[in-house]
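Slide 14.
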Amino acid sequence: MARAAAARLAAAALALALLAPALPAAAEPDGPLIVKRELIRESARISDIGQAAAKEVLARAFSEAVTEADVIAELSQAMIDAGSSELLEGFSAIVASGAASAIPHGDYSDDATNYILPGEVVVVDIGARYDGWVSDNTKTYFIGVEPPELFLSAYALVAEAQQLAVAQIRSGVLAVDLDTLARDFLAEAGYEEEFMHCLGHGLGLQVHVPPMLCPDSDDVLLASRNDVVAVEPGLYFDGCLGIRIEDDFAVLRTGYERYTFASAAMEDIMLAPPEDWNGTSPSGEFADYSGCPFEVDARKAAGAPPAAMAGGASGAGDAASAVALAAVLAAAAGTYVFRAPLARAARALLRRP
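Slide 15: predicted structure.
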């Protein structure tokens, strides 16, 4: 009887071995054999908190001098307060504004004068670490209300490229196929050269682990390995602006589960000035689009009123205000005695250089 029971157990073990999905014989060199998805999900939730904090700091750029380093410091502290580890080995937050947004995965500057300016594009690429497991979350913001046409059209393409690739995520899909899908879509839109990095990567105890969503990858997405992938298409226009959208997704047998939820909708990534904004920049500067192949009125892009109406205006604006005041006083006085001197004063102000 004992031998019969042992035989049945052996037969069951053999059957399970034959029916089980194939797994790698050993752990990947950059990640574990089985990913702890529930911990990456929590890490992703914390990274959304970081993006919310980034938006709050960026929105202050209309009323106070804010640097890229300031944004990183505040979003990092918000994630730490939410449970992220203070140190995230192999991953540094990126806040790249203006023309620096066109540098894929570039380093931020801690130069005290490197301000976030009204009218600028800003890429915020961050990740949290929860109990050792990481997330990766990128959003692109516009500090104003009227972005350049290139930004609007390119942003829509990047968002659609991500959606096309994500819709195909499921166990058994080749990583290269996802990359090809997004890459071909952007190439057909005329931007083959502007998408210059892999579509994405796996997440684990490090930020970049298999499966790698790259043109030369031979990786396969596997639910049996609990794969979680970051999908991050982008377009970059050298010297002008860049756009990247990145979110994290768990690979399931028949689809995917989304882990990051910070909105990338246009109405949510455009940060409008406060209603009482006087139209001035705290640093004295607005966005610089001189490196773009088109002209942009940075004040208008930011949502500032005409220069003559902005608070703190000088020169012609002061003269116009003085003339208006003189006219009102003259009308109120109602006598020639007051009208003539005030008229002369108004003419004198208008002749001032």
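Speaker note: The CA atoms of residues 180 and 331 lie 73 Å apart.
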